[in-house]
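Blackboard transcription, Thursday session:
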Amino acid sequence: MSDTMQVPSISACPACVATPLAVDRAAAAAAETPARIMLSIPDAHCALCISTVESDLEKMPGIRSARLNLTLRRVSVDADASVSPDQIIERLVTLGYPAYELDPGTLSMTHIDRQGRDLLMRLGVAGFSMMNIMLLSVAVWSGATDATRDLFHLISAAIAVPTVAFAAQPFFRKAWSGVKAGRLDMDFPISLAITLATAISLYETFNGGHHAYFDAAVMLTFFLLAGRYLDFRTRAVARSAAQELSALEVPRAIRLSGTVEDTVSVSELVVGDLVLVRPGGRIPVDGEIVAGTSELDRSLLTGETLPVFAERGLLVTAGAVNLTGPLTVRVSAAGKDSSLHRMADLVAVAENARNKYTTLAERAARLYSPSVHLLAFGAFAVWMWITGGDVRLAINIAAATLIITCPCALGLAVPAVVTAASGKLFRAGLLIKDGSALERLAEVDTVVFDKTGTLTMGTPEPVNLADLSRADLEVAAALGAASSHPLAMSLAGAARAQGVIPVTLDHIAEVPGHGVQAMWNGQRVRLGRAAWVGAEALNVTAAYLAIGTQEPRAIAFADRLRQGAQEAVAAFEAQGKRVILISGDVAGAVSDLANRLGIEDWRAEALPQDKADAITAMQAEGRRVLMVGDGLNDTVALTAAHVSISPASALDAARVASDIVLLGASLAVLPEAQRVSMRAVRRIRENFAVSFGYNIIAVPIALIGVASPLIAALAMSVSSITVALNSLRLK
Amino acid sequence: MDILAVLIPVSLLLGLGGLAAFWWTLKRGQYDDPEGDSQRILRGDYDDHPKP
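(Written on the board underneath:)
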């Protein structure tokens, strides 16, 4: 390890080669470098959380320091290499804070960080220059004349020109790339106004003119940078957090060649290879089972909660989880041809079909850019004609028009509201991945839920334990504890929670695909499938317990509702939205859940494409659909919907396909989020109205040629501040 | 009006001083966790020696 570390340290520091001591020291430091572990804690929200998390983690052996960032809900831990992230996560969970590990490599985010600091630095420079220039400008406005005025203008120029050259670069760069691509976006009129104002003021300064717009040029830069920075921050926070969530699961498979097992990347597998899938592992390819019996959990693929019995000859698809026994699978399709990959293709098709959404800001810019240019150019032409060719006056008036119409308020109108709204939603546990998602969420009138993993936790829990005698329960708990099957584990857990002490069993054996059996007090006891135990199968999810020759008992299971599911459905219905449940699970399970939640409209046994088709059909009727789902079978539907939400526990593919990620466990925040988004859109519209209103008053003043730098400064700052304050009302 | 010869450099220097202070806070990462800082100020744990 230290050898590999030395190489870069030498190349990074050529001087170190001359001093071997330094090399040794660097290597020693590298070996001792504590691991920095980053964890996301979505539930952290208060001063108490800081003390609890930090002081408790610092008491753990091997941890040097821990710091909780409440803004990003992230704790960074400096720990010895001996401390594993899992230990810390476990510790945090016992404190009541669920945590996810983050990859510090992608998190150091040097690029994004640097970009943010860069913008902030430009904002700072613009701010401080603005204040200094304003001091001088106020002196001029209040009556400085002749030499004093010219001196003040000169000093202003000395501050303003370098400031504009440095601080306004982001606008110049974007405007230039826009021009090269043949577009006129917001940055072009902004750059034009800033450069024209600076240039004309320089000219006036050197010719002893009365009006200089240095303060306006710098103020414009400042307010627009503020908007830009807010916009950047919202997106950077969302992007980094979304990156964080993507689990780094490298797709690997165990290939059997003869009796040798070797671990290879899934992409290296070819049709005909034999692949071993251990219990608990995910099947990496499509294929046919050639050896072994087990049960498969296909809930993420199809939404079925009940595990499927798997034996020799069964065709399996990639993505299913093997539960009880080892399976050998002969590959029938790998890589591009596998069903996993076909799903990705479907998602790509749906993505193409999704209309490009035009945000309010884009619509405003489309209207704004050409009209501003026309207005300024018209003013120039008309005044040239009126004055019979006074270029200086005409350009002055055109510049004043550009400055006054310049979208200070417009540039703040959207970012300020989106920052306030996404901050509010983030505190509620929702992460907006895409800025336009907020606007799209506001338009929603239909909500489609997936069942397994979304409305329910995807973990079954026993519902009729009370029907069992204490003695039976003790046996069942002991049998359940011996298996890693989800029903068995849930049964054992529930029994433990009731204080049941499991009996001691002998000769415990798990029969893959069937259940667990053992000997107890000289009789055979079994927990497993109905046919194997000798019981009549019920039409609900159940495990069956047989003790000796007694009548077998059924232990029925129901999927546990996700926290807040009931409230969310009720609130959406109270808002007058249509709530629909579409699941890949069997009709019985889906209708049960629909009844429990009071959803009238439900569909069962839907294939991934069916879900997407249903949503596309509703949208063709003019409905705006919010899709909430978590599974692989939901990804196409998530992409097809107007806006989509997936829980943080969802598969990577589903999270990538959705616009908003639910970080907390409860669904109850969704209706509230929808209300927040509607309020946010209303604020954005108000802001546009405000800045438009200011323009209606100020533009005629500029056009008739009586706009002074004082009026320009007033119009600009008052409208920007109004807009910023209006956005803050969202809280 | 001679006072201007003093006051203008002073105001410029003050502005530069403010900018330098801002630059320093930015470099030290003091804007990384505004929400956490607003809560930390209410705690007495690090009153004597601030946490690094």
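Lecturer's comment: Chain B has a mean pLDDT of 81.
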